[in-house]
Amino acid sequence: MDTPDAALAALDERALIEACLANEPGAFDLIVERHRRSVYMLCYRFVGNHEDASDLSQDVFLRAYRGLRSFRGQSSLGTWLYRIGVNLCLNRVSAKAPAVESIDERQFVDERAESPSEAMLRAERGARVRAAIAQLPRKQRATLILRAYHDMSHQEIADVLDSTVGAVKANFFHALGSLKKILGGEDA
Amino acid sequence: MHLTPDQLVDIAEGATPESSMPHLAACAACRAQLNELRSMVSAVGKVGVPEPSPLFWDHFSRRVHDAVEHARLKPARYELWRWLRASGVRATIVAALALLVVVLVVSRTRAPHDAATQVAADAGARDVWSDVAADPDSDASLTLVASLTAGIGLDAAGAAGLAHEGSAEHAVTHMSDGELRELQRLLKEEMARPGA
């Protein structure tokens, strides 16, 4: 793998894409490096396990590479990658029940600040919320994940989902209402 | 009138101040809904994702790099698919195959009325496959299809969705030698039957 050099690292997004299209060595590696974590986190939110999240993330970048010429820069590259990721993830979770990892693997927190029983309680709460999110309809789930975990604006989410801001807000509202019902009013 | 989902979401997220919605102070139902929204946003936000090992990222980048290199070195199938989509060749192939089907159906329908064909069929000895193999240029429709699809391999047909898994084309092209021989035998037997 080519290590992205300083000249490439100094390029802005548009110039980096142009470098990729010109087959500049290391250019696409740099795009991967910049976006790999957020893409992986997005995929993990949908599928709930490392292995599938890793495979899906790789697929996102491969499709992005193949479709880079069609990227017109109307949204940011990150939004475009999210768009690819959401579509892939929704197709995957429709075809396959999400494999959920053990409670120990489910969350990353600074455990120095909590007791083992608190950590267990938090992990169980997290597992319940994650399972509830997995039951949401596709658009509600995607909206909730992008809004709650990726801090995207309603407009950006609308771009990713080919939707409108009004529909995104309505989906977010209904997603939270559905979660409340699924969790049965417990203290999630 | 109660607050809309849009308005409640905006207030719950802090995009709109509560004070700008006087209705909220007077409506217990809307206040309860707003509190539920806030508690759910908070509960959802507490669910984290395990951070992969720092070693994972280098491994991941290498995997993607290798996959991209593979795609760069072997783009033929993908590029062919793009070309088929962009150029309209796919429509030509579909039209040619449709024409072939029509020609075959018409020729099969007309066959019993053709005295010469009828005699040959009655004789029961006609080998259709040998005829075609001996003189493939004799059938104008086959010639047309052959010229249109000369450069299209099975992979291309598959990419164009003409031989997807589960289709008859796919089944035929994935038969073993024994299965092909048996299919040929059955077809010959069928074509040799009087009136076939």
Rg of chain A, alpha carbons: 18 Å
Tally of individual helices of chain B: 12
**Helix fraction bin of chain B:** over 70%
DSSP summary, beta strand count of chain A: 0
Output the structural class of chain A.
Answer: mainly alpha
Which sheet architecture does the biggest sheet of chain B show? none
Quickly name the level 1 CATH class of the largest domain in chain A: Mainly Alpha
Name the helix and strand elements of chain B from N-terminus to C-terminus, one letter apiece.
HHHHHHHHHHHH
Report the count of strand segments of chain B: 0
Number of domains of chain A: 2
Mean pLDDT of chain B, nearest integer? 74
Radius of gyration of chain B: 33 Å
Strand content of chain B: under 5%
| Number of distinct helices of chain A | 10
The largest pleated sheet of chain A is described as: none
Mean pLDDT of chain A: 86
Residues in helices of chain A, as a percent range: over 70%
* Unreliable spans of chain B: none
* Structural class label of chain B: mainly alpha
Task: Please tell me about this protein's structure.
The complex is a heterodimer of chains A (188) and B (196). Helices cover 71% and strands 0% of the residues of chain A. Chain A has helices at 6-9, 13-21, 27-47, 50-67, 77-95, 103-106, 116-134, 138-150, 154-161, 165-182. Chain A is globular, with a radius of gyration of 18 Å. Chain B has two domains: 5-42, no CATH class; 79-192, no CATH class. Chain B contains twelve helices and no strands. Chain B has helices spanning 5-12, 22-26, 28-45, 54-73, 76-87, 89-110, 115-123, 128-134, 140-148, 154-159, 168-173, 177-192. In chain B, helix 1 (5-12) crosses helix 3 (28-45) and helix 6 packs antiparallel against helix 9 (140-148). Chain B is elongated and about 90 Å long. The termini of chain B are far apart. The interface between A and B is large, with 48 and 32 residues.
